[in-house]
């Protein structure tokens, strides 16, 4: 298994936010969920594209440091997005969900390297999902 994790910290407004980048190879059977520190929550999210039906599915799960599921959400969006835009929207929806449920500070785990790099970048964003990244930064 090829795997590594990189912790990137972003503090914005009232919501301390850590985005953790989890990149793994093809052998996913040995990947284990890693708990956040005590007093924090962790958002795991995923987005799936269905190009035939022109829709995106998003799943969100927020757990505490003991691994207890605190909140979940699933959503279908009838639209056709790029994978990066779908992942950025999933992060945004997950953070909004965490704020609505009062489950923060929160650690966000994502496998979308380009999105994580843009969220943590201070430079101007010109990507097609740049407005969503700006919304994430404004939380």
Kindly summarize this structure in a few lines:
It comes from Dipteronia sinensis. It is built from 3 helices and 6 strands, in the order E-E-E-E-E-H-E-H-H.
Features:
RNA-DNA hybrid ribonuclease activity; 6-stranded mixed β-sheet; RNaseH_sf; 139 residues; Nucleotidyltransferase, domain 5; 3 helices; alpha/beta; disordered N terminus; RNase H type-1 domain-containing protein; RNase_H-like_EbsB-rel
What does this structure look like?
The protein has a single domain, classed as Nucleotidyltransferase, domain 5 (2-Layer Sandwich). It has 3 helices and 6 strands. The radius of gyration is 15 Å and the shape is globular. Helix 1 packs parallel to helix 3. Helices cover 24% and strands 38% of the residues. The protein has helices at 83-101, 113-119, 130-137, and strands at 3-12, 15-24, 41-50, 55-63, 69-77, 106-110. A 6-stranded mixed β-sheet has the order 1-2-6-3-4-5, covered by helices on one side. It is of the alpha/beta class. The longest helix is centred in the middle third of the chain and has 19 residues, at 83-101. Residues 1-15 and 23-27 have low confidence and may be disordered.
């Amino acid at each position: 298994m090829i795997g590594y994790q990189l912790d990137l910290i972003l503090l914005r407004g009232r919501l301390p936010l850590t985005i953790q980048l989890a990149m793994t190879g093809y052998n996913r059977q040995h990947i284990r969920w890693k708990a956040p520190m005590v007093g924090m929550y962790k958002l795991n999210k995923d987005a799936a594209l269905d190009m035939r039906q022109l829709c995106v599915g998003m799943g969100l799960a927020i757990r505490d440091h003991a691994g207890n599921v605190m909140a979940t959400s699933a959503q279908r969006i009838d639209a056709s997005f790029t994978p990066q835009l779908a992942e950025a929207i999933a992060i945004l929806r997950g953070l909004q969900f965490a704020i609505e449920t009062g489950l923060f500070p929160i650690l966000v785990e994502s496998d979308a390297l380009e999105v994580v790099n843009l969220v943590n970048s201070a430079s101007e964003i010109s990507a097609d999902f740049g407005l969503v990244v700006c919304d994430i930064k404004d939380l």
